[in-house]
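Q: For a teaching session next week I want to show students how multiple molecules come together into a single three-dimensional assembly. I've collected the sequence lines for a complex. Could you give me the predicted structure tokens for the whole thing so I can convert them for display?
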Amino acid sequence: MKNRTTILNAALAAVLGIALFISIIVKTMCPQIIIPEVNIPYIAAVSLAALVLTSFVKTEKGCPICEAVLAGITFGVLPWAAGAIAGGELLKYALVGAIVFAVLNEMFKAMVKRIDLAGACKGAVIPAAFALYLACQCFAGWML
Amino acid sequence: MKVKSLWMPVIVICMFAAILFGTKAGTAGAAQVKEQEELNTLMLSLLPGSTSFTEEAYEGEDANIKAVYRADNGCVIMTSTYGYASDVVMLIGVSNEGEVKGLVVRDMGETYGLGAKALSDVDFLAQYLWTTGDAEIGTNVDALSGATVTSKAVTRSVNSAVGFMTGVDAATSATTWGE
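A: Of course. Below is the structure for the complete assembly, covering every listed component.
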């Protein structure tokens, strides 16, 4: 069985990398399409997508601090490489990304545990993640 | 926890960083050309009757105005005002008489399902057509339900654009909540 940190952070980098790659292509081909900017709701959506994907894989217990640090690196480096943020903003995005990811990771783990305990369908993690995303974007207006 | 297990995510991050960097560099030229073409097409439809546009330096005090493109029969003005969660960037076509001829939201990151409706809600945006700088939420413009702050940002943009044409420059871009 793989370590949770390995799977989760690899999934996070893959989800964010693919999303940013699609953004670059769409921006080149169809500039009239409005592409979501990298902000707290965007970070939350990517984090939750990675958490949902990982929840379907059986993993060993990981290290939450390592997961947050790696998430910070992911949210700093990849948007910068894609030209979505300036070089000077890299640290800010890394810090915000690490915090948002750490909070969502803990909340999501608690939700998955409750879903498992209740014996509910495994797919229930998807609406649970969507509810967390909606909560995040409503708070973003106050926090930014 | 084994340090070995941290290598895989780091390799994936580096791999995607290299791909993104390469793709961005490779498409930069094409993206710029395409964006200019799209801007020209959009401006022609926002100010019917215009044939060509010249970008003009804006030296007024209104911080909402970001760029001015002048044609024979009016201007297309790019504005940026802060909404609920992001800047709302708009292109507004205003005739020489100070009448709004067309408007479009060009960029925004407002709340999905609420403020983001300002992008495509034709009934909401159509209320600003033919206004002459007197648009006001609650008076002659109905706000989007659940998105009053975004609606006010759009209103400030429209009034700033008309103000530029009529010579009544607004001096602030601050978001005033609840007003």
